[in-house]
Design a protein that fits this description.
With 339 residues, the chain is an alpha/beta fold. It contains 10 helices and 14 strands. The longest helix has 16 residues.
Amino acid sequence: MQRIALIGIGKMGLSHLAIANQTPGIEVKAICDTSKQLIRAIEKNTKFVCYTDSEKMINEVPLDGVMILVPNAHHFNLVKYCIEKGIHVFVEKPLTLSYKDSKYLVDLAKTNNVKGQVGYVNRFNPVFQRVKKLLDQNIIGEVGNYVNRMTGGVILKESSKGWRNDYKKGGGCLFDYGPHCFDLSTYFFGTDVMVQSSVLKKVFSTAVDDMVYATLLHNNKIVGFNYINWSDGSVRKATNNIEITGSKGKILASKQELSIFLTEANTELKLEKGWNQMYVTDENMDVPYYLRGEDFSRQLIEFSDLLNGKIEESISSLYSASVTDRLLEETKNLNKELL
């Protein structure tokens, strides 16, 4: 049983705490948050050792792994401290707010033989995992292009305050929604990728972008258009969907369903010529604890496997996350001004 602690018990932190507490192979030993009121309440009602100082916790509690669930601007220092202490890490996305810092952490983890995982939950979605497998099987032939969209209704009125309107704190649609969108692209098409063009546009925010248009080129042959918008009032819940076009067909996918169009039938996979439809409920949905979706439980099972030596590297590694951070940085740097 591997001993872990959580740093940052906000909305996501509470969800991760509940799931981690039910995940085989790991045991939550301590938690840390700067809110003394929250810590008092948790301390009163649970068995966890509670702290308001993360370094004090790390130095006093024997730990195999730490989950870092704090605001984006604090990721680098906390991940760095854990790696230097030889403690394996899970950190919510993005890894850091700069590619330089992310690359430094990747190299530091390698030097210190520390394993890491980043919270790109799309990689653990059953439908997206099916898409990855189908692409690896060349089901639609040679992929030529894709359209990757992530939309939601986060900023729907004029906004000039808070972390979401501050790039230095990880604000802006690009750095909040963009990581999931770009990570899905690199999951499917690899990390040999560069930004060809981008446009950042304000809608309601005063200092950051609300809409992003970015064209990526993978392996010098696959062109991807990424459209990211957190000011779409027609969307009740954030959605990520992708359309992939190949020489022998097309794939349309979201977290809930998958449509496959083939120019020829595939008898081995029992797929007909024309359209084929699949749903998330057709995939294996078994998880030890369900909260917010099986994707979140699956990623913590992976972290447990990482800590227990069942796998050497997560499918959502520090390295793959650093590539996403490079793409985010390149996308922003191509825009001297927001439209």
